[in-house]
Specification:
By secondary structure, the protein is α+β, with helices and mostly antiparallel strands. The chain has a domain of about 120 residues: OmpA-like domain (60s Ribosomal Protein L30, Chain: A, 2-Layer Sandwich), CATH 3.30.1330.60. It has ten helices and four strands. α1 runs parallel beside α3 and α4 packs antiparallel against α5. The longest helix has 24 residues. It is elongated, with a radius of gyration of 23 Å. The two termini are about 45 Å apart.
Length: about 325
Protein backbone atom coordinates (compact mmCIF):
# COMPACT_ATOMS: atom_id res chain seq x y z
CA UNK A 1 0.00 0.00 0.00
CA UNK A 2 3.00 2.31 0.05
CA UNK A 3 3.29 2.40 -3.76
CA UNK A 4 1.27 5.61 -3.91
CA UNK A 5 2.23 7.05 -0.53
CA UNK A 6 2.92 10.47 -2.11
CA UNK A 7 -0.72 11.46 -2.56
CA UNK A 8 -0.48 14.91 -0.97
CA UNK A 9 -1.85 13.49 2.28
CA UNK A 10 -1.62 15.85 5.20
CA UNK A 11 -2.50 14.59 8.62
CA UNK A 12 -2.44 17.11 11.47
CA UNK A 13 -1.49 15.26 14.62
CA UNK A 14 -1.00 16.29 18.23
CA UNK A 15 -1.09 14.66 21.64
CA UNK A 16 -4.42 13.36 22.94
CA UNK A 17 -5.46 15.19 26.06
CA UNK A 18 -7.86 14.24 28.83
CA UNK A 19 -6.70 10.63 28.74
CA UNK A 20 -8.15 10.07 32.20
CA UNK A 21 -11.57 11.52 31.43
CA UNK A 22 -14.46 9.28 32.29
CA UNK A 23 -17.12 8.19 29.84
CA UNK A 24 -19.85 9.80 31.92
CA UNK A 25 -21.31 13.30 31.71
CA UNK A 26 -19.01 14.53 28.98
CA UNK A 27 -20.25 16.99 26.41
CA UNK A 28 -20.01 16.06 22.76
CA UNK A 29 -17.65 18.95 22.11
CA UNK A 30 -15.12 17.48 24.53
CA UNK A 31 -15.21 14.11 22.79
CA UNK A 32 -14.79 15.88 19.45
CA UNK A 33 -11.77 17.64 20.90
CA UNK A 34 -10.29 14.35 22.07
CA UNK A 35 -10.80 12.69 18.69
CA UNK A 36 -9.48 15.75 16.87
CA UNK A 37 -6.23 15.19 18.68
CA UNK A 38 -3.93 12.31 17.94
CA UNK A 39 -1.57 10.40 20.12
CA UNK A 40 2.08 9.74 19.42
CA UNK A 41 1.42 6.49 21.27
CA UNK A 42 -1.49 5.32 19.12
CA UNK A 43 -4.27 3.57 21.03
CA UNK A 44 -6.94 2.09 18.78
CA UNK A 45 -9.05 0.81 21.67
CA UNK A 46 -9.23 4.27 23.21
CA UNK A 47 -10.14 5.82 19.87
CA UNK A 48 -12.91 3.29 19.35
CA UNK A 49 -14.12 3.88 22.92
CA UNK A 50 -14.49 7.60 22.17
CA UNK A 51 -16.67 6.78 19.18
CA UNK A 52 -18.85 4.46 21.25
CA UNK A 53 -19.12 7.06 23.99
CA UNK A 54 -20.17 9.72 21.50
CA UNK A 55 -23.24 7.68 20.57
CA UNK A 56 -24.56 7.71 24.14
CA UNK A 57 -27.75 9.80 24.52
CA UNK A 58 -26.33 12.06 27.23
CA UNK A 59 -23.63 13.39 24.91
CA UNK A 60 -26.31 14.90 22.63
CA UNK A 61 -24.05 14.54 19.59
CA UNK A 62 -25.72 15.39 16.30
CA UNK A 63 -25.63 12.99 13.35
CA UNK A 64 -23.17 15.32 11.60
CA UNK A 65 -20.87 15.38 14.62
CA UNK A 66 -20.93 11.58 14.80
CA UNK A 67 -20.26 11.30 11.08
CA UNK A 68 -17.30 13.69 11.22
CA UNK A 69 -15.91 12.01 14.34
CA UNK A 70 -15.75 8.80 12.36
CA UNK A 71 -13.90 10.51 9.56
CA UNK A 72 -11.46 12.12 12.00
CA UNK A 73 -10.82 8.74 13.57
CA UNK A 74 -10.28 7.27 10.10
CA UNK A 75 -7.60 9.87 9.38
CA UNK A 76 -5.81 9.08 12.62
CA UNK A 77 -5.83 5.36 11.90
CA UNK A 78 -4.47 5.88 8.38
CA UNK A 79 -1.75 8.09 9.84
CA UNK A 80 -0.83 5.22 12.14
CA UNK A 81 -0.75 2.88 9.13
CA UNK A 82 1.82 5.15 7.47
CA UNK A 83 3.86 5.29 10.66
CA UNK A 84 3.94 1.50 10.92
CA UNK A 85 4.58 1.08 7.19
CA UNK A 86 7.58 3.42 7.42
CA UNK A 87 8.83 1.28 10.29
CA UNK A 88 8.74 -1.80 8.07
CA UNK A 89 5.44 -3.39 9.04
CA UNK A 90 4.10 -5.50 6.15
CA UNK A 91 0.90 -4.83 4.25
CA UNK A 92 -0.71 -8.00 5.57
CA UNK A 93 -0.42 -6.71 9.13
CA UNK A 94 -1.65 -3.25 8.14
CA UNK A 95 -4.81 -4.31 6.29
CA UNK A 96 -6.85 -4.92 9.48
CA UNK A 97 -6.15 -1.33 10.55
CA UNK A 98 -7.29 -0.06 7.15
CA UNK A 99 -10.47 -2.12 7.48
CA UNK A 100 -11.17 -0.42 10.81
CA UNK A 101 -10.41 2.98 9.25
CA UNK A 102 -12.97 2.41 6.50
CA UNK A 103 -15.51 1.00 8.95
CA UNK A 104 -15.39 3.99 11.33
CA UNK A 105 -15.09 6.64 8.62
CA UNK A 106 -15.62 5.59 4.98
CA UNK A 107 -13.44 8.16 3.23
CA UNK A 108 -11.95 7.93 -0.27
CA UNK A 109 -8.47 7.63 1.20
CA UNK A 110 -9.44 4.73 3.46
CA UNK A 111 -11.11 2.98 0.51
CA UNK A 112 -8.16 3.64 -1.81
CA UNK A 113 -5.50 2.35 0.57
CA UNK A 114 -7.62 -0.65 1.49
CA UNK A 115 -8.01 -1.43 -2.23
CA UNK A 116 -4.26 -1.16 -2.67
CA UNK A 117 -3.58 -3.38 0.33
CA UNK A 118 -5.99 -5.99 -1.03
CA UNK A 119 -4.37 -5.94 -4.46
CA UNK A 120 -0.87 -6.17 -3.02
CA UNK A 121 -1.81 -9.14 -0.83
CA UNK A 122 -1.22 -12.84 -1.36
CA UNK A 123 -0.43 -13.18 -5.07
CA UNK A 124 -1.87 -16.69 -5.13
CA UNK A 125 -5.27 -15.33 -4.06
CA UNK A 126 -7.02 -14.24 -7.25
CA UNK A 127 -10.08 -13.11 -5.26
CA UNK A 128 -7.99 -10.21 -3.99
CA UNK A 129 -8.95 -8.35 -7.18
CA UNK A 130 -12.64 -8.75 -6.36
CA UNK A 131 -12.03 -6.89 -3.11
CA UNK A 132 -9.72 -4.28 -4.64
CA UNK A 133 -12.27 -3.61 -7.42
CA UNK A 134 -14.91 -3.02 -4.78
CA UNK A 135 -12.82 -0.57 -2.75
CA UNK A 136 -11.30 1.29 -5.71
CA UNK A 137 -14.80 1.97 -7.00
CA UNK A 138 -16.03 3.03 -3.57
CA UNK A 139 -13.11 5.48 -3.43
CA UNK A 140 -14.28 6.89 -6.77
CA UNK A 141 -17.80 7.32 -5.43
CA UNK A 142 -16.61 9.05 -2.25
CA UNK A 143 -14.57 11.53 -4.29
CA UNK A 144 -17.50 12.18 -6.63
CA UNK A 145 -19.86 12.75 -3.70
CA UNK A 146 -17.73 15.55 -2.25
CA UNK A 147 -17.33 17.11 -5.70
CA UNK A 148 -21.10 17.06 -6.28
CA UNK A 149 -22.45 17.86 -2.81
CA UNK A 150 -19.55 19.61 -1.09
CA UNK A 151 -17.82 18.89 2.20
CA UNK A 152 -19.72 17.56 5.18
CA UNK A 153 -16.69 17.71 7.43
CA UNK A 154 -13.90 20.29 7.53
CA UNK A 155 -11.01 19.83 5.13
CA UNK A 156 -12.61 17.24 2.83
CA UNK A 157 -12.57 19.37 -0.31
CA UNK A 158 -8.93 20.33 0.24
CA UNK A 159 -7.98 16.64 0.45
CA UNK A 160 -9.53 15.65 -2.86
CA UNK A 161 -7.05 14.17 -5.36
CA UNK A 162 -5.78 16.14 -8.33
CA UNK A 163 -6.54 15.02 -11.88
CA UNK A 164 -3.39 12.93 -12.19
CA UNK A 165 -4.25 10.90 -9.11
CA UNK A 166 -7.90 10.67 -10.15
CA UNK A 167 -6.82 9.20 -13.48
CA UNK A 168 -4.59 6.69 -11.69
CA UNK A 169 -7.46 5.60 -9.41
CA UNK A 170 -9.77 5.12 -12.41
CA UNK A 171 -7.12 3.08 -14.19
CA UNK A 172 -6.41 0.91 -11.15
CA UNK A 173 -10.13 0.35 -10.66
CA UNK A 174 -10.64 -0.66 -14.30
CA UNK A 175 -7.82 -3.20 -14.13
CA UNK A 176 -9.14 -4.69 -10.89
CA UNK A 177 -12.59 -5.06 -12.44
CA UNK A 178 -11.08 -6.96 -15.35
CA UNK A 179 -8.95 -9.20 -13.11
CA UNK A 180 -11.64 -10.01 -10.53
CA UNK A 181 -12.84 -13.63 -10.51
CA UNK A 182 -16.46 -12.50 -10.33
CA UNK A 183 -18.18 -9.49 -11.81
CA UNK A 184 -17.90 -6.60 -9.35
CA UNK A 185 -20.85 -4.37 -10.08
CA UNK A 186 -20.13 -0.64 -9.83
CA UNK A 187 -21.66 0.87 -6.68
CA UNK A 188 -24.52 3.34 -6.93
CA UNK A 189 -23.68 6.95 -6.04
CA UNK A 190 -25.49 9.13 -3.54
CA UNK A 191 -27.22 10.84 -6.46
CA UNK A 192 -28.54 7.47 -7.66
CA UNK A 193 -26.41 6.94 -10.76
CA UNK A 194 -24.19 4.00 -11.60
CA UNK A 195 -20.81 4.92 -10.17
CA UNK A 196 -17.31 3.52 -10.00
CA UNK A 197 -15.60 3.17 -13.37
CA UNK A 198 -18.92 3.93 -15.08
CA UNK A 199 -19.16 7.49 -13.76
CA UNK A 200 -19.14 10.02 -16.62
CA UNK A 201 -16.04 11.65 -15.12
CA UNK A 202 -14.02 12.00 -11.94
CA UNK A 203 -12.45 15.36 -11.10
CA UNK A 204 -12.74 16.28 -14.78
CA UNK A 205 -11.13 13.01 -15.91
CA UNK A 206 -13.02 10.27 -17.72
CA UNK A 207 -12.23 6.83 -19.02
CA UNK A 208 -12.49 6.88 -22.79
CA UNK A 209 -13.26 3.17 -22.66
CA UNK A 210 -15.11 1.43 -19.85
CA UNK A 211 -14.18 -2.15 -18.95
CA UNK A 212 -16.85 -4.74 -19.71
CA UNK A 213 -15.43 -8.01 -18.33
CA UNK A 214 -17.50 -10.28 -20.54
CA UNK A 215 -15.15 -13.22 -20.14
CA UNK A 216 -15.56 -16.37 -22.20
CA UNK A 217 -14.81 -20.05 -21.88
CA UNK A 218 -11.43 -21.04 -23.30
CA UNK A 219 -11.29 -20.70 -27.10
CA UNK A 220 -15.05 -20.19 -27.12
CA UNK A 221 -17.76 -17.58 -27.50
CA UNK A 222 -19.71 -18.96 -24.54
CA UNK A 223 -19.85 -16.60 -21.56
CA UNK A 224 -18.35 -17.62 -18.25
CA UNK A 225 -20.60 -16.89 -15.23
CA UNK A 226 -18.64 -13.64 -14.74
CA UNK A 227 -19.04 -12.83 -18.43
CA UNK A 228 -22.79 -13.34 -18.35
CA UNK A 229 -23.13 -11.12 -15.26
CA UNK A 230 -21.07 -8.43 -17.01
CA UNK A 231 -23.22 -8.64 -20.14
CA UNK A 232 -26.38 -8.27 -18.03
CA UNK A 233 -24.87 -5.21 -16.36
CA UNK A 234 -23.93 -3.71 -19.72
CA UNK A 235 -27.57 -4.05 -20.82
CA UNK A 236 -28.72 -2.43 -17.57
CA UNK A 237 -26.27 0.44 -18.01
CA UNK A 238 -27.16 1.29 -21.60
CA UNK A 239 -30.88 1.11 -20.79
CA UNK A 240 -30.46 3.30 -17.71
CA UNK A 241 -28.53 5.85 -19.76
CA UNK A 242 -30.95 5.56 -22.71
CA UNK A 243 -28.01 5.13 -25.07
CA UNK A 244 -29.10 5.09 -28.68
CA UNK A 245 -25.64 4.25 -30.01
CA UNK A 246 -22.54 2.58 -28.63
CA UNK A 247 -19.30 0.96 -29.74
CA UNK A 248 -17.83 -2.25 -28.36
CA UNK A 249 -14.13 -3.00 -28.78
CA UNK A 250 -12.79 -6.53 -28.47
CA UNK A 251 -9.24 -7.51 -27.56
CA UNK A 252 -7.30 -10.75 -27.17
CA UNK A 253 -3.98 -11.78 -25.70
CA UNK A 254 -0.98 -12.56 -27.90
CA UNK A 255 -1.46 -16.33 -27.95
CA UNK A 256 -2.25 -17.50 -31.45
CA UNK A 257 -1.53 -15.76 -34.74
CA UNK A 258 -2.92 -12.40 -35.84
CA UNK A 259 -5.66 -13.85 -38.03
CA UNK A 260 -6.86 -16.22 -35.31
CA UNK A 261 -7.01 -13.45 -32.70
CA UNK A 262 -8.86 -11.08 -35.03
CA UNK A 263 -11.41 -13.77 -35.81
CA UNK A 264 -11.80 -14.61 -32.13
CA UNK A 265 -12.36 -10.98 -31.13
CA UNK A 266 -14.94 -10.59 -33.93
CA UNK A 267 -16.84 -13.68 -32.77
CA UNK A 268 -16.81 -12.60 -29.14
CA UNK A 269 -18.02 -9.11 -29.98
CA UNK A 270 -20.77 -10.70 -32.04
CA UNK A 271 -21.73 -12.76 -28.98
CA UNK A 272 -22.02 -9.63 -26.82
CA UNK A 273 -23.97 -7.81 -29.53
CA UNK A 274 -26.26 -10.81 -29.95
CA UNK A 275 -26.92 -10.89 -26.20
CA UNK A 276 -27.92 -7.22 -26.22
CA UNK A 277 -30.21 -7.71 -29.22
CA UNK A 278 -31.79 -10.84 -27.76
CA UNK A 279 -32.60 -8.92 -24.59
CA UNK A 280 -34.30 -6.00 -26.29
CA UNK A 281 -31.70 -3.36 -27.09
CA UNK A 282 -32.61 -1.71 -30.40
CA UNK A 283 -30.00 1.05 -30.61
CA UNK A 284 -27.04 1.19 -32.95
CA UNK A 285 -24.21 -1.16 -31.98
CA UNK A 286 -20.85 -0.77 -33.67
CA UNK A 287 -18.12 -3.34 -33.06
CA UNK A 288 -14.39 -2.78 -33.44
CA UNK A 289 -12.32 -5.97 -33.20
CA UNK A 290 -8.76 -5.13 -32.21
CA UNK A 291 -7.28 -8.59 -31.81
CA UNK A 292 -3.92 -8.51 -30.06
CA UNK A 293 -2.91 -5.14 -31.52
CA UNK A 294 -3.86 -2.90 -28.57
CA UNK A 295 -2.39 -4.53 -25.46
CA UNK A 296 -3.27 -3.03 -22.11
CA UNK A 297 -1.04 -0.15 -20.99
CA UNK A 298 0.88 -0.90 -17.81
CA UNK A 299 2.73 1.76 -15.80
CA UNK A 300 4.76 -0.99 -14.17
CA UNK A 301 5.15 -4.11 -16.36
CA UNK A 302 6.22 -6.11 -13.32
CA UNK A 303 3.09 -5.27 -11.37
CA UNK A 304 1.11 -8.19 -12.78
CA UNK A 305 2.04 -11.76 -13.58
CA UNK A 306 2.14 -12.95 -17.19
CA UNK A 307 -1.17 -14.76 -16.69
CA UNK A 308 -2.77 -11.63 -15.20
CA UNK A 309 -1.48 -9.51 -18.09
CA UNK A 310 -3.02 -11.98 -20.53
CA UNK A 311 -6.34 -11.66 -18.70
CA UNK A 312 -6.15 -7.88 -18.91
CA UNK A 313 -5.57 -8.16 -22.64
CA UNK A 314 -8.59 -10.45 -23.12
CA UNK A 315 -11.11 -7.69 -22.67
CA UNK A 316 -14.19 -6.00 -24.09
CA UNK A 317 -14.53 -2.25 -23.75
CA UNK A 318 -17.47 0.11 -24.08
CA UNK A 319 -16.74 3.38 -25.88
CA UNK A 320 -19.39 6.09 -25.87
CA UNK A 321 -17.47 8.59 -28.00
CA UNK A 322 -15.49 6.32 -30.27
CA UNK A 323 -13.76 7.75 -33.30
CA UNK A 324 -15.24 5.63 -36.07
CA UNK A 325 -12.52 6.78 -38.44
CA UNK A 326 -9.88 5.15 -36.24
CA UNK A 327 -7.61 2.64 -37.93
CA UNK A 328 -9.36 -0.70 -38.40
CA UNK A 329 -6.90 -3.30 -37.12
CA UNK A 330 -8.81 -6.50 -37.87
CA UNK A 331 -10.66 -5.71 -41.09
Amino acid sequence: MVRYILLNLVFIVSVITNTNATAQNRACEQIVSDIDASSQSFNLEKLQAYLVEAKAPDTQCTSKQLFCMGRRASRLIINEVFTRSSAGVGDGDLKPLLEVAYDVGPTWKAAFYLAEAEEDGDKSDQTRFDRSAKYFQLAINHIDEIDKFGSVCAGETEELPNQSIARMILDRAAKSVLLAKTFVKPPITRSGEIGGVYLPSLRGVSLERRPVPTTFEFNSVAFTPKGKAAAKFLLEFINTKNLSTLTLLGHTDKKGNDAFNCTLSKKRLAAVKGFLRKNGYTGEISTAPRGEFEPVKLDDPGQYSEEETDRLNRRVELALNYNKSAKKLCE
